Amino acid sequence: MSKIRSALEIALERTESVESNPQRIEEETLTKEGQRLVSKYLYEHALTLEEIQEELSGKQPTQRKYLISGIAHALTANISIPQSGAPIDHLPAIKTAVETLAPDDEMSEQFNRIEQFFQQYQQQTAQIRSSLEQQYEPKLRQKQQQYAQQYGRMVELTFEQDPEFLELLNKHIQQLDEQYRSVLDEVKDQIKNHIIQHYSASS
């Protein structure tokens, strides 16, 4: 009977594999460093794009490849569908970063399309909610009357207080999210690959 390896054993094997491969160590270190630079730029506002460019220019070609890979992955990972009507916080800063690090007119247009794409998404989510509220309102009022009879006083119910409505709304929003996320993932891959290829070509 073959021995079933534990997750810990597998993890230790992977760690040993990395430790025995200096190139792999350098790749992981610089990839994480690229992600850290993006975090300092986007969230902490403690780093400028000029400083990121200096970090890149100070690296050897192979090191630069790993660093820009981490930067590209981190930038595109922060492009996400806005939830619950929230503003598109980081998109302008990410657009500026891409235009600075890997200037290209097509990429600028791509970001303009993403902005329109997100606006369309927000409009559709609002339409879905409005439509569901109209359909569900008679049922909500019926529940309100039932509560009034049960407790002997009028009970004001809102859509946000009704678990059944919220479940219905979430189901429709999740379906919409899947459609939009599929398209967005393709665009993010294009942007990520463009950044990496830009630096590969210039190395």
Judging from the principal axes of the Cα atoms, what is the shape? elongated
Number of helices: 7
How widely separated are the two ends? 53 Å
Determine the structural class based on helices, strands and strand pairing: mainly alpha
Give the helix level as a range of percent.
Answer: over 70%
**Biggest β-sheet, characterized?**
none
Mean pLDDT: 89
| Rounded Rg | 24 Å
pLDDT < 50 runs, ≥5 residues: none
Protein architecture, described:
- This protein has 203 residues and is mostly helical.
- The chain is built from seven helices and no strands.
- Helix 6 (105-151) packs antiparallel against helix 7.
- The protein is elongated.
- It starts with 6 loop residues before the first helix and ends with a helix.
List the helices and strands and how they pair.
Elements: H1 7-19, H2 22-42, H3 49-57, H4 61-77, H5 91-101, H6 105-151, H7 163-202
Helix pairs in contact: 2-4, 4-7, 5-6, 6-7
Quick rundown:
This protein is mostly helical.
What characteristics describe this protein?
single chain; 203 residues; mainly alpha; 78% helix; 0% strand
